[in-house]
Specification:
Helix content is 38%, strand content 16%. By secondary structure, the chain is of the alpha/beta class. The chain has three domains: 2-167, Ribosomal Protein S5, domain 2; 189-400, P-loop containing nucleotide triphosphate hydrolases (Rossmann fold), CATH 3.40.50; 429-510, Helicase, Ruva Protein, domain 3 (Orthogonal Bundle). The longest helix has 19 residues, at 403-421. Residues 496-510 have low confidence and may be disordered.
Length: 510
């Protein structure tokens, strides 16, 4: 006989239906798994044999074949253990075969019969719900899967409980969804002394979802400012929460099924590889850029990242998606993140600081900043200098305006954008719609054209200035973009060393 049960294969954050076919037949002995299975799937044979031995189930000494169909889809991961084991149990009559027809099963088996946690329970439950099926998953994945909707869910602790449930001697209750976490520790802007210009730039970045680069000497507060950006951003909407949770589920980061409305904040070390940043590897897992989806990706010491890693972010910065191509697979991961970067002006860290000259001369700053490609820099809307904090700044009392005050203005500006742009922030607004929502007045247009010619703005840079100006107008509650908004938007785009100095930029434009 041939027993059938459903499971899933993951393609990015999507789960694809897989039919597990199990046959125990006469004509020799052996145990083979076919259907483009990777090593983790092939090793399930040994885990299942040991698990059955521990719980007292004996398989007949016959030829056993497991087919994972469709056969041309790569099968990866240990979550195939449970569906294969259930198919074998159905073949020997330990569980009724017809009882498996309405279920999708995922789970890894321990040698003692325990069903252990696997990544991807939420996408698997979403697909099962869409197909009108229930989900069988490990107990640890039950609260996560319960977020997928009102579908039947069995979440046993071990295989014995599942067998008894299908025999009718034990009833497994449906797990409840994990907690929805709304509370989090918000770092206050009041902790940052001085740096009023940088705080204003941070507010603009939060309001419009703009990418931002801070350049300044060590200790000027760049990392402190970046860490306070999540507190300025509005909480995730229901749709965004689902998108983020799907990525984190595939990555195995949803502990106890707890979802958070707090936007992700990822800060990878500058030694991160390309696969760690954009995803990939043997099993094409999501990288830091995807884990920061709908949140913030903070890159400290930006020039210390390899140029290949930085340039690999150019695609997601434009499209909000990452395509990982392999010989036998092509996987897409969402990666709509807000990039916040920080760097020293030169390798010594002192170039441009008041009263301090770089020990290696001007060439140090030029060579250091040249590690970042022009096309990458062109995708960063806000580029500001963050000067060193003086003793006078440190002696000042805390600012009267904190994170809550700024977040309130950001929320109002975002609401204006959502209603006008159809759910998009100004940073995500397509170029073909800028003429309708970001057309400056006559004086503003004249200033923008003059600045574009003087500073050599690219077409992308020109449009990013318009997006910034639109955000500044939204913060001011202005329906039209005026000259003052264009001027401030231009001031938030720092000139690179070796091309223009900051003072030269101001004289050229204003």
């Amino acid at each position: 006989m041939v027993a059938h049960i459903s499971t899933v294969a993951f393609e990015g954050t999507n789960a694809r239906h897989i039919n597990v076919q199990v046959q125990i037949a006469s004509g020799g002995s052996g145990f083979s798994i076919v259907g483009l299975a990777d090593k983790a799937v092939a090793e399930s044979r040994d885990r299942i044999w040991a698990c059955f031995s521990s719980i007292g189930v004996e398989l007949p000494y016959r030829r056993t074949v497991i087919n994972l169909a469709p056969a041309d889809i790569p099968k990866e991961g240990a979550h195939y253990d449970l569906p294969i084991a259930l198919g074998l149990l159905a073949c020997i009559g330990a569980v009724p075969e017809d009882a498996l027809m309405d279920w999708v099963a995922i789970g890894e088996l321990a040698l003692d019969g325990t069903i252990t946690r696997v990544p991807g329970a939420l996408p698997a439950a979403m697909q099962a719900n869409a197909d009108g099926l229930g989900l069988i998953c490990p107990e640890a994945n039950g609260p996560e899967a319960a977020w997928a909707g009102d579908l039947p869910i069995l979440a046993p602790h071990n295989l014995i409980q599942l067998i008894n449930h299908f025999k009718g001697t034990q009833i497994l209750s449906r797990p409840s969804p994990g907690a929805l976490l709304d509370d989090h520790d918000v770092l206050d802007l009041k902790d940052v002394r001085g740096q009023e210009t940088a705080k204003r730039a941070l507010e603009v970045a939060a309001a419009g979802g703009h990418n931002m680069l801070m350049v300044g000497p060590p200790g000027s507060g760049k990392s402190m400012l970046a860490a306070r950006l999540p507190g300025l951003l509005p909480p995730l909407t229901a749709r965004e929460l689902l998108d983020v949770s799907m990525v984190h589920s595939v990555a195995g980061l949803l502990e106890r099924g707890q979802l958070s409305r707090h936007r992700p904040f990822r800060s990878p070390h500058h030694s991160a590889s390309m696969a760690a940043m954009v995803g990939g590897g043997v099993k094409a897992k999501p990288g830091e850029a995807s884990l920061a989806h709908r949140g913030v990706l903070f890159l400290d010491e930006l020039p210390e990242f390899t140029p290949q890693v930085l340039d690999s972010l150019r695609q997601p910065l434009e499209t909000g998606e990452i395509s990982v191509a392999r010989v036998n697979a092509h996987v897409n991961y969402p990666a709509s993140f807000q990039l916040i970067a920080a760097m020293n002006p030169c390798r010594c860290g002192t170039a441009g600081a008041d009263g301090i000259a770089c020990r290696r001369g001007e060439r140090c700053a030029i060579d250091y900043q040249a590690r970042i490609s022009g096309p990458f820099m062109d995708r960063i809307d806000i580029q500001i200098d963050v000067p060193a904090v003086t003793p006078a700044d440190l002696s000042l009392p805390p600012a009267s305006e904190g994170t809550a005050d700024v977040a309130d203005r950001v929320a109002k500006a975002r609401q204006i954008q959502i209603e006008r742009n159809g759910g998009l922030t100004n940073a995500d607004l397509p170029t073909n719609r800028l003429d309708h929502v970001a057309e400056p007045d006559r004086e503003g247009q004249k200033l923008l054209i003059q600045a574009a010619e003087t500073l050599g703005l690219t077409a992308r840079g020109y449009h990013r200035v318009l997006r910034l100006a639109r955000t500044l107008a939204d913060l001011n509650g202005s329906e039209s973009i005026r000259r003052i908004h264009i001027a401030e938007a231009l001031s938030l785009r720092r000139a690179r060393k070796g091309l223009h100095t900051a003072e030269h930029t101001k004289k050229a434009v204003f």
